[in-house]
Protein 1
Amino acid sequence: MKIKTLGLFKPLLLLSLTAGYFSVHAQDLQTARAAYASQLTKKVKSPQDFVPEKLPAGVKEIDYVSGNLHLKSWMSATTDNSKKMPAVVFLHGGFSFSADDWVSAQGFVNAGYLLLMPRLRGENGGEGYFEMFGGEVDDAIAAGKYLATLPQVDAQRIYLAGHSVGGSLAMLTAQMPSPYKAVAAYSGFARLPLWLAHYKNIAPFNVDLPDEQKIRDPLRYVTSVKVPLFVFTESAASPSIPVNTEFCNMVAKYSVCKHEVITGSHESMIAPSVARTIALFNKP
């Protein structure tokens, strides 16, 4: 099973369901998540296939802790710890990690960033259970906290980026307290419950419950974005463009949010988005 895209909507359905939705919700995501813990109806691993991957040169595998879970991650190796460097957590697309995901984010390493690409709960046979945009937000935050403990990392320059499923997770993480100084979301989707409705068969919770939808809906919490947020949507995902544009416009009333349409497809948009993100993260 491959789930590397969020762009699986019928355009007319999407636009009709989003029309008239946009309004400001006072409650922030941290409060909503504290008040309601997702009720898993089944405890399962990630539904996406994976194969064991061989570590490429210049990469090491590390363990990071998220709550009571010990999870795996790939991290770019460094040999000189005398100078602190910026670091970025990159959340892969889909619901499993592959070496191709690492290659897609290589631009950060080339630009002098320490790159950490975590496997989230239940992925690739790891600890924990699949929550589908629930506890995975906690894992994304935990990965950033791990980076903050490393002596070679500049704690004032820790960032988050993500693609597709990872892009939507990045949006949600930007609405939570974290070590991240800025967040970039590639090909995410700000009206996530509409996407969830298409994947009821793999959801480990009751998708029809309003409380389950609320804690997974970035659009409900535009007032609680904690850091500058940069949203990139590929030109081929035309139904997502108005949704993400409106989301960013609303966020910008309370924080920093910029939305850009990147020419290309779901996959070809990653490299130019990484390059653009590096330029934005490097701005003083």
Protein 2
Amino acid sequence: MTLAIGIDIGGTGIKGAVIDLDAGELVSDRIKHPTPEGGEPEAIIETVALLVDELGTDGVAHIGVCFPAIVRNGRTMSAANVSERWIGLDADTLFGEALGRDIHFVNDADAAGYAETLSGAARDRRGLVIMTTLGTGIGSAFIYDGVLIPNSELGHLELDGRDAEDWAANSAREREGLSFAQWAERLTRYYRHVEFLFSPDLFIIGGGVSKQHEEFLHLIDVTTPIVPAVLRNNAGIMGAAALAARHAR
């Protein structure tokens, strides 16, 4: 049994668990803390260190952390719904120093997409799979024939003069009090545009709202098959852990 810790940092919450990578499942309770107000690096690092301490590292071979940003070689190159001080930050080194061991830092949607490839809705799927996570923003992951293509940013596609996530993310639905039917109209506009640009073979919808997929998924009018994520809110945790193990090989 190979154990790893996965940590998923979001705009509103930071959650983590111990994963059995061989079985592809959580072997601890999932622990969650609120994301510190302002999303400053020091406060988030402190919260992650607390979470890892609560989980315990006995027998843990790898630690993976995922985050809503473009991540190049462990350095965060953007900042979505967190402090702009993350831009250009050497996150791998800073988190590694705080935790006292090597860690692997990745984009959150990439982690979720990778997890769905290993044991979720994209498992054994050929062709281009695009996973999008609908939450505070819109994250995305490209998987082609099972291979992750990192750092796509489909939430920031410009549509109607605005970032798509400004009006199509789940946060926009909640903020504006939209019904699921009204929201699905916006999602149709968004996914048709993505469909036109990339001609995917499958869309996977993740994020916490995917638990309510029966309310809106069938209302999104696209020709590409569209299915809910299987791993849902655990996908980022599991993917971050699995990518940390892959990176260590």
Protein 3
Amino acid sequence: MNRLRTVSVVIPARNDAPALARCLRALNRQSVPPLEVVVVDNASEDRTAEVARHYGARVVTERRVGIPQAASAGYDAARGEILARLDADSVPGPRWVEQVSTLMSGTRWDAVTGVGRFYELPRSGRVVAGLYLGAYYLLCHAALGHRPLWGSNMALHSSTWRQVRDRIHDDDAEVHDDLDLAFALGPERTIRLDRSLVMGVSARALRGRAQMRRRFARAFRTLSVNWAIAPPWQRWARRIRHVLGPGRGRPPATRHPTAQRGQGLR
């Protein structure tokens, strides 16, 4: 039987104290507790840091405003063998950490991602969540050449993070950090989509035209900066070569031309 690997839960948060409290209460009721919960206080002006400490989380401060900056700071600071990622308004079930550790321990997956349900919506919300996430996974798969990651419910090995650290765009607050990380992982790595890994999430990201415009703008920004490095047809060609000849290995972990070194814990 494989040993369950240790899990650090990373939560970027900015002015999210009430939602964060609910998330942390759920993490404190896990069947297998995480090694640690790392809350990245992203220049909050409310009680975010105070709430995090109250529930036993370790607080990392990232003063550059932006989810990519905050997520990277959290991954850099985390001590676990597995880095699990949530949003402040995520509500994990009682076995979520155990599921993540089981899926990632002794397997060939580089990363794992799951699905969600909108806890603020009635039963019909399941259909909305299915359509929303289904479209996300389908369209991003086409753009990447492999499965994407969804930041409200995902995990990767800490060793994998270190390998791709210099390829991400955490100097750009207008990219989606989860999609950008999936681009950095590349077609030669394997991301598992596990539908048994279910996360309660807020529907606030889908409310209002301004919010939707912002999300789409960030999506196009993430695609443009990464397609400038490798357009989708090149990524798909790499994926096909990898699948047909898995023994050929992975590309060397070369420095990303636009990434900055030393952007860890500040």
Protein 4
Amino acid sequence: MFKVIGALIGFWVFGFLGALLGFFIGSAYDRVRMLGLGGANPLTRNHRQQVFLQTIFTLKGKLAKADGHISQAEIDHTEAFMRQLKMSAEQRQQAIEWFKQGSGPDYDVSTVIQEFRRTCGHTANLPEVLLVFLVVIALADGDFDAAEEALLADIARQLGFSDTQFRQILERTLNQTHFAPGQTSQNQLADAYKALGVDESCSDQELKRAYRKLMSQYHPDKLMGQGVPDDMIELGKQQTQEIQAAYELIKRSRTA
């Protein structure tokens, strides 16, 4: 939007060259608004992708060991996760090393989180996307225990979220998984509201605003621009499908 405004103002003030300058300035502003200041420079995208991957696999290792041992289900999920990302043999080896490092008994998660915040912390919502992905990963083996929740709460605090914000993100994510293909829920409508982070008494306008905000957060262009590796965009698509399903259920209930 601002690239068009910039071009028009530039043309009105300085003519054709001013229009070009205004277009580029407006484009840069649009990028900052969509991706945050940390995602505005496309030249740093590859580095952000590398740091994002390192953070995911290192913390995945820490989560796997949170209850004291790494289960076969967690190993199987890690292998399936690497296949989903279509990693080369070299990339797989690096990911395994990160996983092993994170699962070490004395590993301090603050090391990798501090690097993530330096590199990716100033993007529009990449810290929240990381936290949501970690919750989804923790749920993958079908056993979400107190040790994993406590670790995720600590990670959230180090990412800059308050305990209240963490509980909100966790509740939304847990309820979004109820709308994954093949999943069912006894209180589906109530879960749908929780999945969108709104109260059942919210207005249609408030509902739509919450829905659009969540859908925007996982838009493929935004995720890629901020630094989510291309092959991990599928995780974001899964989130949007669950959010869409919850929203459609609420809409049907309100028009019935």
